[in-house]
Design a protein that fits this description.
Elements lengths: L1 E4 L22 H11 L4 H8 L3 H13 L10 E2 H4 L3 H6 L6 H10 E5 L3 E3 L4 E2 L18 H16 L7 E4 L3 H4 L10 E11 L2 E3 L2 H17 L17 E2 L8 E6 L4
Parallel strand pairs: 1-3, 1-6, 6-7, 7-10
Antiparallel strand pairs: 2-5, 3-4, 7-8, 9-10
Helix pairs in contact: 2-3
């Protein structure tokens, strides 16, 4: 069983790392090609490309300038500890023990506009590049085209030796689109989280993102390797809603946010 989540815009390269274990991303050469193109862009072009403010574009232009493929723990950080958005608040990787990191390394992937995908212990340097950015690289018309084959192929291979060959989708729609569902050779299970609003249940972005992190943490800390065990997930008041779910899409709901 393999789980995919999205990265985050907010980064943490200041706090003290809690593990010395690390690996390197699988496709650094392809990442470098993206960086080399971004290094040719002016601050104004970066701002327009990513629809970000002047201060953010200035920060990221400097990041592209500083970025290099010579990763070390002095200049880079494990991806699972570097990202600090809503999903990662729910994930709470800072509470992981070494056995949790090792399980996550085999069962969790972070999708990435710059790297295609990152293993939790893969070192990364600070960057901002969303998967939906309209950036042409070589013959690839955009980042989806650029990373599609690499990401899909790796996911197909990643469950070798696992107890169950299933992809658990805890990623946002923007990032999950990089996976070619038609070419998946393993089962796919989409997970959604909804809040009760009146007589209906609705998806609320902030809560849904944190819930994805909660479930990823639940899987890692409980060493879950079979999807059916996810029906026992009850963090933050969520529970499996069989009435709203089907075989391909499982819905977890709660009546009141905790």
């Amino acid at each position: 069983m393999i789980v995919v989540i999205s990265p985050a815009k907010t980064l943490d390269f200041e706090s003290k790392p809690i593990t010395k274990s690390f690996t390197l991303p699988d496709h650094l050469e392809k990442s470098m090609l993206i960086i080399k193109k971004l290094q040719t862009f002016s601050q104004k072009k970066v701002s327009e490309l990513m629809n970000i403010s002047e201060s953010l574009s200035k920060l990221n232009v400097q990041r592209y300038k500083d970025w290099n493929g010579d990763f070390s723990t002095k200049t880079a950080r494990q991806s699972i500890l570097a990202f600090k958005g809503d999903v990662y608040i729910g994930l709470e990787a800072e509470t992981f023990k070494e056995k949790d990191f090792l399980f996550a390394q085999k069962h969790l992937l972070i999708l990435s506009g710059l790297h295609g995908y990152l293993h939790p212990l893969d070192l990364m340097m600070p960057y901002r590049l969303e998967m939906g950015t309209s950036l042409k690289i070589g013959k690839a018309k955009n980042l989806y085209d650029y990373w599609n084959e690499d990401v899909t192929n790796f996911i197909n291979q990643s469950t070798e030796g696992h107890k169950e060959k299933t992809l658990i989708n805890l990623a946002s729609e923007e990032y999950f689109k990089v996976i070619n569902k038609k070419n998946l050779s393993i089962s796919l299970l989409n997970i959604e989280f909804k809040e009760k609003k009146g007589a209906d249940y609705k998806t609320i972005g902030f809560f849904a993102k944190k819930a994805r992190g909660y479930m990823a943490s639940y899987i890692i800390k409980n060493k879950i390797e079979k999807s059916n065990e996810l029906k026992n997930f009850n963090t933050a008041g969520y529970s499996f809603n069989g009435k709203l779910s089907n075989s391909l899409n499982w819905i977890f709901t709660r009546d009141q946010a905790e």
